[in-house]
Amino acid sequence: MGTDSLLTPLSEMQREVVRLARDFAAAEILPHAERWDREAYFEPSIIRRLGALGFLGMLIPERYDGMGLDAVTYLLALEEIAAADASTAVLMSVHNSLPTQMILRWGSDEQRERWLRPMARGELLGAFALSEPEAGSDASALACQAVRDGSDWVLTGTKAWVTNGNTAGVIVAMARTDEPGERRGAKGISAFIVTPDLPGFRVGKKEDKLGLRSSPTVQLAFDELRLPGDRLLGAEGRGFIYAMQSLDHGRLGIAAQATGIARAALEHATAYAAERRQFGEPIREFQAIQFKLADMATRVASARALLHAAAAAKDRGEAVTPFSSMAKLQASETAMWVTTQAVQVFGGYGYVKEYPVERLFRDAKVTEIYEGTSEVQRIVIARSLYA
Ligand SMILES: Cc1cc2nc3c(=O)[nH]c(=O)nc-3n(C[C@H](O)[C@H](O)[C@H](O)COP(=O)(O)OP(=O)(O)OC[C@H]3O[C@@H](n4cnc5c(N)ncnc54)[C@H](O)[C@@H]3O)c2cc1C
Fold it and tell me: What residue's CA is closest to ligand 1, atom 42?
């Protein structure tokens, strides 16, 4: 079972990108993934190496040193990386889908020139800071405040759960620009380009997580962080809309990550069922195991098919908000279900760290939580039914 879409055959270029991602993952990620997970270790050189391959500029146009690829091709590569290590995949997904896309879409010419080239080359990693300790699913309730001071902006507040917040060179952060006495809800939020070199920037607590253990997730504190005026991204008061529109793309990335995790679990379970013998024969001879593997394969194929259909619609320039939510919902619940079945196929060996399905099972869970929980995806989908 490969990554071939059921919908359209892959082009020669797409096959080449998949090969590149698969070879890189097999040589430089997979051999270390178990140790990185066990030690909750982030390998910094991965940024430069992904950048050298072009994998941190997959959606950035060639004129800014990116690869200028379509969403389908990018997501095929992301699935390959995720099948080896979901932590590396989330780095790639956040960077490619959120901060770089926000700067590309809403940045000024000067901002694009200044930030996109180093981001595409892997010299600057991007992060996305929307969530706060008290503002998760209800992100428009965020409290981080930006106040104008002459031509500068001064930011004060705490951002939570920032993937790569301690290693990123560019953080697109959402903050309130409305007056405390005159709150304007989502319309009072703007997007800013924050860099860690500025006084007032502080990395806070690093989360000790169930899964994705080699992906650093941190709090960021802005203590009267002074930003030059040219760090406002796009129009004042539009930051929340920008963040939501970018999440359409981000959720496709998480769906590809989840599909990669599920596929890896299926592959491990299939191989193990052929090796493991009980009652004098390989367990793959038992119909209960065969049916489990068949259901796992069917769900992985359907998650990938929906993902590619949504991504192809995005590439055609169509509005994909509910389809992106459907793809993320379907793929993340598939990842959780398939990894649970894989643990079952491994029996007791599925429950220990010596075998890879235990890590895949832990890594799968977060795909049902971040970039909008499964409940939030259902809200988005249900709302579209009445639009
Ligand atoms: C590993 C990791 C990495 C992350 N990376 C980033 C990042 O890089 N940048 C960033 O900005 N954020 C990031 N997040 C934050 C993530 O997006 C939030 O955790 C997520 O949006 C949920 O918010 P919350 O944790 O506050 O949960 P809550 O919003 O408090 O939700 C708790 C529960 O209530 C449910 N719920 C909430 N509202 C409703 C409703 N209206 N109807 C029904 N059910 C509801 C939720 O579905 C959930 O089950 C990350 C999170 C994790 C765990």
Answer: 375
